[in-house]
Amino acid sequence: MEELKQELEQLFDEMIHKIQLFKKKTYSPAFLEAYQDHRNLFSRISAACSGEKAIPSSELAEVIPEYAYQKMQKFSRRDREKFALNFNLTMVAYIVPLFMYTRDPVCEKLAEDMALSWNQKQVTKMEIRVSTYEKIAAGFKKSWFSFGRSSDK
Question: Keywords in UniProt for this one (predicted)?
């Protein structure tokens, strides 16, 4: 359990550095690489939360929100506002979608519980929602001109 917790914390720290890749041309390759790099972690989490001696997924769902909350408390009030956006973007663009991308019911539930825990703990002043890689990637493909246009011409 302790090893999984440390790996989840490391995942968060690693994904924060991928924020700079949250752009149309770089998001998909960065996301898919992160998924490949951490597939083993997702499998181990799923196995740990299943079976007779299962760890409750709710315990693992608390790890990243608690870790991020503690990191936020170390920043000055002014810096918290600056880092809040990066922390939220890390969660909605990488962490939650990575767990959802597994298509594993245990990991999907963990992602939902993680978002809920993030909001309840009020890691930042902004709430997050469950997001998927497919929806985010599709959002990059939409043209700005298509927004608000009527399709019944």
Answer: Membrane, Transmembrane, Transmembrane helix
Please provide the DSSP assignment of the chain as one string. Answer: -HHHHHHHHHHHHHHHTTGGG-STTTHHHHHHHHHHHHHHHHHHHHHHTSSTTPPPHHHHHTHHHHHHHHHHHTS-HHHHHHHHHHHHHHIIIIIHHHHHHT--HHHHHHHHHHHHHHHHHTSSSS------HHHHHHHHHS-GGGTT--S--
Ranges of each domain in the chain: 2-140
Query: How many degrees, rounded to 5, is the angle at CA 132 between CA 12 and CA 16?
Result: 20
Q: What is the pLDDT of residues 104-144, one digit of tens each?
A: 999 999 999 999 999 999 999 889 999 999 999 988 876 54
Q: Please indicate, yes or no, whether the overall pTM of this predicted structure exceeds 0.70.
A: yes
